[in-house]
Write the structure tokens for this entry.
Amino acid sequence: MGAPAEAGRLWHVTLSLSGAEAPLRDVRQALERLAQDHPFLLTSRYANDHAEIRYWEEARDLHDAAAVALRLWGEHRATAKLPPWEIVGLEVIDRDTYHQRVAEGYGPPPASPVGVHPY
């Protein structure tokens, strides 16, 4: 008899991207399409040459959550018409660590308002 499947945990992901300048309107529309393709997307901040995406991912462990995050931009580049930017930063933390950081006042504030916003 096999071991029961480990339940997924929630991981807070922050993905940072940058690259050549693109029109702000195009970046915003692309991030809005990405949010439709990836319904767990909480918030995106963007400028014409960089963006930050924050969301919750359910995964077995940090390795799985990070792997999904590292594929997110490339897998949705064509369908969401994302700029050809590269990933320049990735942070994946578990739910307890996220809430501990917020409570101590040094973590990212809760994503409010949710959505796509300029810097």
User: Anything to note?
Assistant: The chain has a mean pLDDT of 88. The longest strand covers residues 9-18.
